[in-house]
Design goal:
- This protein has 260 residues and is an alpha+beta fold.
- Helix content is 21%, strand content 34%.
- It is built from 5 helices and 15 strands.
- The strands form 3 sheets. Strands 9, 10, 11, 12, 13, 14 and 15 form a 7-stranded mixed sheet that branches.
- A hairpin with a 2-residue loop joins strand 12 and strand 13.
- It is globular.
- The two termini are 27 Å apart.
- Bound molecules: 2,6-diaminopimelic acid.
- 2,6-diaminopimelic acid binds next to helix 2 and helix 4.
- It holds the Pfam family DAP_epimerase.
Amino acid sequence: MNFHFYKYHALGNDYIVIDPHKAGVDLTAANIRLICHRHFGIGSDGILAGPFFEGSAIRLQILNPDGSEAEKSGNGVRIFSRYLVDAGYITTREFSLETRGGRVHVELLDDRGGQIRIDMGTVTFQSESIPVTGPARAVVNEELVIEGRPLAVTCVSIGNPHCVVLAEPSPATAAKLGPLIETHSLFPNRINVQFLQVLDRNNIRIEIWERGAGYTLASGSSSCAAASAAYKLGLVDNEINVHMPGELLKSISGPADTFL
Ligand SMILES: N[C@H](CCC[C@H](N)C(=O)O)C(=O)O
């Protein structure tokens, strides 16, 4: 398989950018799984395919390593915006991107796209919008029993679906409970999972199990979902820092754009 690709990460949530104007690969589910495979492929938490120009709109496809397509990705949009700057597609400081989960407004905070602010849109807790099976309701602080263990869950959509669990966040918890919740029959489209610990009124810590990707070091939409759930539950104020495992890795490996 011989094609052009670009690889970036955001706090260790890594993506491969495949630009149809430069690449030369058919993004079948099988090829996506191979490209994203950590041992048999390049290895990544997903593929960002684009830009696809539709009039003045710029669209990107967000592909999970299992071949499924996601509606939105916070780190994916940040990384793709940086690629657009690096590749010379973008010369303005503000623009929008079209994702399967809706339009995302992007603002470059410096000329290089080193710091990027994105408006991830509005969250909903409504079951029918996430979706979550059962009666139409706001899925807030519900009990979900997994292997006999009662869990307090709050479910959110920010374009893609999330299940926020009030449980001690650890890689072990994410690896054990993540896949069981991701594929639970309550979630017809599967779901991303976050394990949430409230540190104080302005800081939370999460561990992440992503739909179609598994354990990741960071996730933009997960951080929005966890922060929204904590605020909905009255556990935090409305300015929140979300601490994720990738933060530690960054402190070990130094600034994002240096190579070891
Ligand atoms: N796996 C997710 C998409 C990527 C989300 C994450 N990497 C982010 O930064 O938001 C899903 O199927 O909804």
